[in-house]
Amino acid sequence: MAAGDEVRWQGASTRTRRWARPAAQLAATALYSSPHNTASAPHVRDAANVQRLFFYFVAATFPAVLIGLWNQGLQIGQGLAESGLTKLPGWRGVVLAGMGWDPLTAGAVWNLLVGLVYFLPLLAVALAAGLLWEVLFATLLRRAPQSGVLMSSWLYVLLLPANMPLLFAALGISFGLVFGKHVFGGGGKYIASPALLGVLFLYFSYPAQMGDGAGLPVPGVESRTILALLADGGIERIAQNGVAWLDVFVGRQPGALGTTSALACAAGALFLVLVRAASARILAGALLGLIIGNWLAAASGASTSAPWYWHASLGSFAFGVAFIATDPVAASVTRAGRWIYGLLIGLLVVLIRTADPAHPDGTLFSILLASLFAPLIDYGAVRAQLYRRQRRRRALRA
Predict the structure, then answer these.
(1) Burial state string for 184-214 with b = 16 or more CB within 10 A and e = fewer than 16
(2) DSSP class per residue in 340-368
(3) Model pLDDT, residue 92
(4) Rounded distance, CA 102 to CA 135, Å?
(5) What pLDDT shows up at residue 13?
(6) What is the DSSP code (8-state) at residue 46?
(7) How far apart are CA 111 and CA 378, in angstroms?
(8) Which end of the chain is less packed: N or C, by CB atoms within 10 Å?
(9) What is the distance between the alpha carbons of residues 244 and 203, in angstroms, rounded to a whole number?
């Protein structure tokens, strides 16, 4: 902390300084980068830092957020038309009615605003809970607060259904950050994405609130994901409901707030690869694993099999692979390990979708399992590389 900041805190009591200093440091960490720059070898000299890396992940999701929120407004409007209602229940319905929203004549801008009315409160609650835990652990452990709360809270909210109560949203992010990050030592040391753990905690602890991920907040209207239709009757059931693949690929399907558009997620993944924030090997490995697993499922005669491009566009596969599986801390770091890590995710997704109808998506479970095995995968990749190097040395000596 700068000298001016030290003088500013001298007039405060000891207890006030103990709790307020981490909050001020956290704000400074989020808004400013370090004034110290590497100037000589052997240290890496690069414009990227931890804050910028996390911001890249948030920025990469912007296309998925825009399309996802527009789709939420569209789905809610269609649900109201189906139910015969003219407004939504609760305080969100009061806010939208006060703004002059008419679901029967609403266009794209109104659909986006409806999505924002559901997204922003969830984000505010998740951020508040995340910041509270960050300041608390920084104070108790007498260390500087760490970056990453914004990225974890942002990705976590995008994986939630629109009708998630705010209290449960706070519980989920609290579990993910406390038991997925801080108990392992904080940022850079966790073994699975805190956002991923928070969502899975809600899935197992409060299944009635999570449902199948659609979560349409319209009374009397049951919105089922297309994956649920696939689990019921395969690709034929999807065709009977008049669902076209192109609509699904663009993002017109029931689902969580930010996971519905595979096209937007692909654009975000391309951005992360270009700025070197994510590994193309993980992305390519996951897609290749999905294709191989789908071919094996079709060859075995699985009733829920579908073309691989359907599986890649349905559920949270595109979002999970692009923004959760590429987590710079939880993912594999070796070149060969990244291929194996991605292949494992793709294979597990198809296995869960075809063999376990109770969990029609399976993407988040697959990423969690692959993340748990990531250290072992990297260990095996390093040992294999050392073995090959030793063999070459022996051959040269011979």
Answers:
(1) eebbeebbbbbbbbbbbbbbeeeeebbbbbb
(2) HHHHHHHHHHHHHHHH-TTSS--HHHHHH
(3) 85
(4) 42
(5) 56
(6) -
(7) 45
(8) C
(9) 28
Q: Tell me which residue has tokens 């370090």.
A: 34
CB atoms closer than 10 angstroms to residue 298: 15
* Residue position matching structure tokens 């500087």: 144
- pLDDT at res. 21: 61
- Contact call for residues 234 and 304 (beta carbons, < 8 A): yes
Beta-carbon contacts of 375 under 8 Å, excluding residues fewer than 6 positions away, are 191
The residues near 141 (Cβ < 8 Å, ≥ 6 apart) are: none
Residue 173 has a pLDDT of 95
Q: Are 175 and 198 in contact (CB under 8 A)?
A: yes
Query: Would you give the distance in Å from CA 5 to the centre of its chain?
Result: 36
Quote the pLDDT of residue 6: 47
CA distance 366 to 196: 11
Count of residues making up the chain? 398
Is 52:164 a contact under the CB 8 Å cutoff?
Answer: no
Report, as ranges of residue numbers, the positions in the chain whose pLDDT lies below 70. 1-48, 211-215, 303-305, 357
The DSSP string of 179-228 is: HHTGGGTSTTT-SS-HHHHHHHHHHHH-HHHHTTS-----TT-----HHH
Q: Which two tokens stand for residue 10?
A: 């001298």
0.70 surpassed by pTM: yes
The span from the CA of 258 to the CA of 119, in Å, is 9
Look up residue 301 and give its DSSP letter.
Answer: T
* Closest to 215 measured CA to CA, from 158, 176, 257, 167: 257
Return the pLDDT at 2. Answer: 46
Do residues 360 and 228 lie in contact, with contact meaning Cβ atoms separated by under 8 Å?
Answer: yes
> What are the start-end ranges of the H helices in 226-279?
226-240, 245-250, 262-274
Quote the pLDDT of residue 125: 96
Residue that the structure tokens 């700025």 belong to? 275
Tens digit of each residue's pLDDT (9 = 90 or more) over 226-246: 887 777 777 777 777 778 889
Q: What is the DSSP letter of 323?
A: I
